[in-house]
Amino acid sequence: MSKDTVAGKLKNIGGKIEQATGEAIGNQNLANKGAADRVKGAAQETWGKTKDAAHDLGTHSRLETESAREDAHESAHDVRSGIAGAAEHVKDSISHGIDNLRDDLHRKDREHSKV
What whole-number distance in Å separates Cα of residue 12 and Cα of residue 8? Predict the structure, then answer.
């Protein structure tokens, strides 16, 4: 397990604690910081796992025949593409959620302006 995997797990746990504490005491800044740390931790943990998998594939492919190496390279490509696609999906989902939050805030501001 790489240092990034461990550090990401710890950052994620710390973020959960910060977020829960912020929500419990009504401190939005602390809750938001905790949520951001959770995202950073998840990304760092995923990066560590990706590096571990790449290392394992490299080690495995050095021990295989030429045909198996080609299969390993294709598998590695598929894994990388899947990880990159999943990361893009997560980014898009988070961006969509942020846009919805901003739209709600703007709507509430307009409603308060009318009053």
Answer: 6
HSE (side-chain half, CA atoms, 13 Å) at 24: 7
Distance CA 37, CA 19 (A): 9
pTM of the complete model:
0.60
Distance, CA of 10 to CA of 112 (rounded, Å): 41
Q: What is the pLDDT of residues 51-89, one digit of tens each?
A: 888 777 666 655 556 666 677 677 777 877 887 787 788
Q: Are 76 and 46 within 8 A, CB to CB?
A: no
Instruction: Measure the CA–CA gap between 3 and 114, rounded to whole angstroms.
Output: 54
Quote the CA–CA distance of 66 and 63 in Å, as a whole number: 10
